[in-house]
Design brief:
Radius of gyration of chain B: 19 Å
Low-confidence stretches of chain B: 1-9, 11-24
Number of domains of chain A: 2
Oligomer: heterodimer
Shape of chain B: elongated
CATH architecture of the largest domain in chain A: 2-Layer Sandwich
Helix content of chain A: 25-40%
Number of helices of chain B: 4
Distance between the termini of chain A: 33 Å
Radius of gyration of chain A: 22 Å
Structural class of chain B: mainly alpha
Mean pLDDT of chain B: 72
Number of strands of chain A: 16
Largest sheet of chain A: 6 strands, antiparallel
Chain lengths: 494, 65
């Protein structure tokens, strides 16, 4: 039986200041700090148990390229269970653990609102600071990329090689519906519309597997840091993905990957959907082909991205037939996935432009080509690059994505509520509720524990090694009966 | 212009495919789409950063992840 696909999405946002000389670490810190100060309370992140250097292939990385844990930068836990912090030189929002792909989209959209509110908070808390603007994109067109990562709960008994084999064809090809689009091939300095790519990040991927995330980026990231009971669970950390402005694209990215993992756990995947013989080259080729027709060599012969995606879709359609799909959040979400997936593949095969209301790269391409036609621009006109960047500007008065006619699947009021209220069906509920109920007693929290200070030694750590425990159903009553953090801990038997 | 010729753009569907997908193909529908796009372009003209060249040049990020 497939495990419930508990999942989350972490996004590093681009950041600029009206002062072009400002240090992005400083501006990111101002952003996070201003937001934290505007909240009623503020708990910091707990680094206990972080091990980003552990490799799922079985070894500890001995390279000095292993990711480092930065402990000195602004870091905060939100009452919705998310983490909002400074990672390298970017503000990052890591969503709480969600129980369904649609819920993960909701909490990703909540992250956009948190960023907007943080920009406003800077104006209030640091009125002398130059204006800070945040972009939901993945590259600066000058050779620097920053990530949008996904995390999925996977059964530990599934061998890592099997996960890699099941997902490499997907990660090479899913960009056709979840790429965010980009003007140019920045690594060779060809910044013009003739070199439009469907993915922001494709050209930064240089390896098939690996532990690194900042250089020699791999299609399959082998980081083995489960933030849970390692004997039962694996957290698959996915780094090959663009940040999407389209909610439908975010949904498709998360839901397709979830169902493929579930099929793997249940032994329901075809032997081969078409494994690219050179996955890295294939990622680049597919990204550079906005006609969505390029064929790549695979173990089943020459195949297009659409043909490989249809193999997955057909397998998923067969797999989900007659299932209640609780691992995905129920039959309604399973139907939504299959309908959206099929519509995306059909639309792309008939006329990519027909998908301009759901696929980011198509929406962006439509704006760019129409604008270039109207003003008779040469392909390298900087206004086209400006449209590319401004598509991702989060400010309503500037955002082009918000003007592009993208379909939404998230209710705005629910998104606002998700900025402060946690998902109900994962341990994020315990984390967020502990923080909102007992803000002065929660001294710190991380993914797998919450630490309380009830005024006596030692501090009390409540472990949460199972992402599916600590839900509203299992702890609401205990919270209701607790007038203090001490009572809560007593009732929990801590 | 070998580069340009090599670049493939999204294809326009031909008429038979429109029939297949059941999309409206009337000229009134097409005119509405064009009007929508025109008003969108008018709006981009209004909100696009004034000095695109400087805006693009100043958009510099550090690597992340």
């Amino acid at each position: 039986m497939a495990l419930p696909k508990v999942l989350g999405i972490e996004t590093e946002y681009g950041i600029t200041s009206a002062d072009p000389l400002a240090d992005p670490i400083v501006t990111s810190t101002l952003l996070v700090s201003a937001y934290a100060q505007s909240l009623a309370h503020h708990s910091s992140w707990d680094f206990e148990g972080e091990s980003p250097h552990r490799d799922a292939r079985g070894s500890q990385c001995d390279s000095d390229r292993a990711p480092a844990v930065e402990r000195h930068l602004a870091n905060t836990v939100l009452t919705n269970g998310a983490r909002f912090y400074v990672d390298h030189a970017h503000p990052e929002y890591s969503s709480p653990e969600c129980r369904t792909p649609l819920e993960a989209v909701l909490f990703d959209v909540a992250g956009e609102i948190v960023m907007l509110e943080a920009m406003e908070a800077v104006k209030r808390v640091y009125p002398e600071a130059p204006e800070i603007v945040v972009y939901k994109n993945n590259s600066d067109a000058k050779g620097q990329s920053y990530g949008c990562h996904e995390n999925y709960l996977v059964d530990r008994s599934v061998a890592f090689d099997a996960i890699a084999n099941a997902l490499i064809p997907h990660f090479v090809t899913r960009q056709i519906y979840c790429g965010s689009g980009k003007v140019g091939l920045e690594r060779v300095g060809a910044l013009d519309l003739e070199h439009f790519q469907i993915s922001q990040r494709a050209e930064f991927f240089e390896a098939v597997e690996g532990l690194e995330t900042t250089i020699k980026r791999p299609i399959i990231n082998t980081r083995d840091e489960p933030h849970a009971d390692a004997s039962q669970f694996r957290r698959l950390h996915v780094i090959i993905g663009d940040a999407n402005c389209s909610q439908v694209a975010t949904f498709l990215k998360l839901a397709t990957t979830s169902v493929i993992l579930a099929m793997l756990e249940d032994g329901a995947l075809p032997e081969s959907v078409g494994f690219p013989l050179d996955p890295v080259h294939a990622v680049h080729l597919i990204s550079q082909d906005s006609s969505v027709t390029v064929a790549i060599p695979t173990d089943r012969g020459s195949m297009t991205a659409l043909e490989i995606q249809y193999q997955y879709l057909d397998a998923a359609t067969h797999y989900l037939d007659g299932k209640d799909a609780t691992f995905l959040g129920g039959p309604a979400i399973a139907s939504m996935l299959l309908e959206r997936w099929r519509a995306a593949l059909l639309g792309l095969s008939l006329d990519p432009l027909s998908m301009a209301s759901t696929i980011d790269w198509v929406a962006k391409w439509r704006l760019l080509s129409a604008f270039a036609d109207r003003h008779q621009l040469r392909p390298s006109d900087p206004r086209l690059q400006a449209i590319d960047l401004q598509y991702h500007d989060l400010r309503p008065e500037r955002s082009l994505a918000q003007r592009a006619g993208l379909e939404t699947i998230i209710d705005p009021d629910s998104a606002l509520s998700a900025c402060t209220n946690p998902p109900e069906n994962t341990r994020a509920w315990f984390r967020g509720t502990a923080l909102s109920r007992f803000p002065s007693e929660v001294v710190t929290a991380n993914w797998d524990s919450v630490v309380f200070d009830i005024g006596e030694d030692p501090l009390r750590r409540v472990p949460m090694m199972d992402p599916m425990r600590g839900t509203k159903a299992s702890t609401e009553d205990i919270f209701a009966r607790s007038q203090s953090a001490r009572q809560l801990l007593d009732l929990l038997g801590q | 212009m070998a580069e340009q010729e090599r670049t493939q753009r999204p294809k326009q569907a031909d008429h038979s495919q429109d029939v297949e997908t059941g999309e409206p193909t009337s000229s009134a529908g097409a005119e509405q789409l064009k009007a929508d796009l025109d008003s969108l372009l008018d709006e981009i003209d209004l909100v696009l950063e004034d000095n695109a060249e400087e805006f693009v040049r100043n958009y510099v990020q550090k690597g992340g992840e």
